[in-house]
């Protein structure tokens, strides 16, 4: 089969690899019909996530058709259409039973690696480094899905792929980011980053009762999408001072909650950016935390910082004193996708959510290497790339 | 049996085991190590008792009795350490360090006009020879260091009854403990264990259950005549808040010297504790999910590269 593999920083290729097989009896093999490139894939592409190995199959946003199931999978059969959540979760451990699926205690075969770095290991993820399981990803024609009796959700006939594909990651990720803000009617929510997760966070914040959502980015086309599709008020941080503008909008109170939908590779104008780039290059810090710093400063006292953006390691110059003295709460985590699949699918079926507006590029699997560059460099007004593995 | 009693019991078992091992180890240390141990004690005693005579013998002025006496104490400590410890490697290296001090002091003496050069040179040559033996012996002992004592615990989202039942069937052990090849139930409380060792070697031994308290604890140890000294204790503690069971596991392996022992010890790698924790995690995976999730056998571009070549 054809698969999109990682061979090094800025080196991803589509190569022929053997087809996947059932390896555990709770596995299923899925024929992938749609797969996407996620913002977090850019961190792999740029080489910021350790423990990637040459040849690893990428991709954690995908859906398709069940072709084979292990003897432990009774809820799926060949021919079922399913969306697969990006975290792999057993459903049996304490974390899973408390709906903390991305913290599954049994799905990372390399848990010891993550424990060395973080103290505990999160769930294994598809195509996202060996520290997080080393599972072959789904940006391929076929993929093996472990614990298939727990993760995949069946999609009724008649709903096209594009309507539900983002249930695999970015839609629940944006939704959980907003849910973590404990939104009360009338709240103002600020969202840093108007990529796909930011766009869904904006939409979800309104769904959950926010009165006003402020979207922050530097790309005019993404801000336009946030305004037109998301009804957000926007700040272009290259033209306006974010803190001042937010204070002006809220009469000095600050947003009730701030969402960092950017993560470890934040950009920023000014000397601070050069400082962080340099420290990152010298391995003195792993993540550039501009957004986090700014959100902490801007957030209202007693407010919430919600972090769906991916961070991997150490951040520098985070004003912890502000967190203490302003009584802030920080909420984060890889998304517990399994928890959100059913309610979000229902919202999609009722027409309350249409996530297709973020798709700007529909390409073939073979186009993945070029698509990575287009997406990362924000060329061609790219917001979201969806790939079809079966078109030549 | 209460938890405290089990711990007490395990401590007593441990002490009994250690005494037992010590007796065995005395014979297993190898003639060179033992000779060096006794040499240390002999030299130390001489330095302590007759520093004057010794000074004359090595050709230095008899003006450093306190220094020689303190060196004597050091020698005796190292000698006793080598002979008494189950793992003399550390004390062997202490001897090497002592040798280095001796040599440097002799170096100073050699440059002094009061020293009888020929005697001091002979003494230096003798110490250098002993140093070489110490290094050889220390290196060998370090390689063979293999008693493995691991104490780990893990929370499992299953009742203590279920955990006990799975654990009580020793034949399940190889399903989650990677160093084991098989465990066969024997008659009564006995079982037969087979472990893989590196370099294609295999180690086998008989073990017997020492204590078996339903849903509370199990302890076992290798039979008296076994080549591997092994003992284990597992306690099943009800976790607070309905979170299942916390397993507390103590494992001890005292492998024999020689090639098999070294090959067996290597199985546990640099961090036996990490490996055994991973084994316990496999137990958790087995009993919670019914399988140990693997990635072995999945495709990758690495295979593609290989087939292309």
Structure in a nutshell:
The complex is a heterodimer of chains A (392) and B (309). With 392 residues, chain A is an alpha/beta fold.
Please characterize this protein's 3D structure.
The complex is a heterodimer of chains A (392) and B (309). Chain A has helices spanning 39-45, 94-97, 111-118, 161-164, 170-179, 196-207, 220-228, 242-250, 271-281, 290-298, 320-325, 337-349, 368-376; strands at 2-8, 11-16, 28-37, 56-57, 61-69, 81-84, 87-88, 124-125, 142-145, 153-154, 188-192, 212-217, 233-236, 257-260, 304-307, 329-332, 359-364, 384-388. In chain A, the strands form four sheets. In chain A, strands 3, 5, 6, 9, 10, 17 and 18 form a seven-stranded mixed β-sheet that branches. Chain A is of the alpha/beta class and 392 residues long. Chain A has two domains: 2-168 and 336-388, Medium-chain alcohol dehydrogenases, catalytic domain (Quinone Oxidoreductase, Chain A, domain 1, Alpha-Beta Complex); 171-332, NAD(P)-binding Rossmann-like Domain (Rossmann fold), CATH 3.40.50. In chain A, strand 12 (212-217), helix 7 (220-228) and strand 13 (233-236) form a beta-alpha-beta unit. Chain B has 309 residues and is of the alpha+beta class. In chain B, 55% of the residues lie in helices and 19% in strands. In chain B, 33% of the residues are buried. Chains A and B meet through strand 1, strand 2 and strand 4 of A and helix 10 and helix 11 of B.
